[in-house]
Amino acid sequence: MIILYDFRSANPPTDPRCGYSPFSWRVRFALRIKGLPYKHHWLELPDLEGIAKSVGADPTSKKPDGSPRYTIPFIHDPTTNKVVSNSFDIVDYLDSTYLDTTKMIPEETRLLQSVFANSDYTLVGQFMYPVIGKTMTKRTPSLVTPRNLEAMKARGPLPELTDEQEKEAWEKFKNVLGGFAKQMNDAGPFVMGKKVSMADAVLFGWFGITRWLWNETTDEWKDMMSWHGGRWNKLIEAFESLPEVEKYCDAEGNLKI
Ligand SMILES: N[C@@H](CCC(=O)N[C@@H](CS)C(=O)NCC(=O)O)C(=O)O
């Protein structure tokens, strides 16, 4: 069974709001669309580099000092004994390895999909990020593990936004999504209409992390699900209508069910 290396949050693994990496949510989206079972290996930021090196995961970029930067998500597929990092490359690997599953990166759109996935957190992320930073500082004790929080703060202060700035960032986030919605095929619920692709995984990643911060009971979440004719809700429903493929593990990676 595929092992997905991901950051642990303070929510229990069975909670759909457990993960908080938009990049991991991309892979979780693709795995579910493809119907490929997987289990998580949860880790914390201080352990990332050591674990990535120990399983042979490639770094995905460089740090400002030029040294390799390791990131989650990365996967280990025991069936092929391959380890793959970087969300786009993971989905690409799944496409080319599991040929009888839904292809997420149609050849004729490869460049477009990769630009969308790799452009500086995508436009959505650029606006979302300050809101996340602010919300993390406000809600963190219940969401981020203390070790992760300590490691994040050691790198510098998390974004400090006034309420007004947060509102502006939220509004920009809505407008960017609105811009996408205008260009998207009305047949939906996917970017390519009825055909799901990597671009949906990218958008879903942002919804995954939004739901982690503002769960379904919050006004922010309800607000967002009504935006643009409710089309983002339809994307989430399309994902949730498929059978769950995640096999839940405890913190040590042992299967629970
Ligand atoms: N291009 C990578 C980006 C992944 C990424 O930035 N992951 C973050 C978590 S959301 C990470 O692992 N950060 C580690 C660090 O900052 O040291 C991908 O698409 O998978």
From TrEMBL:
PROSITE patterns in UniProt: GST_NTER
Entry GO terms, CC: cytoplasm
Coiled-coil residue spans: none
Gene3D superfamilies: 1.20.1050.10, Glutaredoxin
Chain ranges of the GST N-terminal domain: 11-102
Top-level division of the source organism's lineage: Eukaryota
Signal peptide: none
InterPro entries, per the entry: Glutathione-S-Trfase_C_sf, Glutathione_S-Trfase_N, GST_Omega/HSP26, GST_UstS-like_C, Thioredoxin-like_sf
Stretches that traverse the bilayer: none
UniProt-listed Pfam families: GST_C_7, GST_N_2
Protein name: GST N-terminal domain-containing protein
Origin organism lineage: Eukaryota, Fungi, Dikarya, Basidiomycota, Agaricomycotina
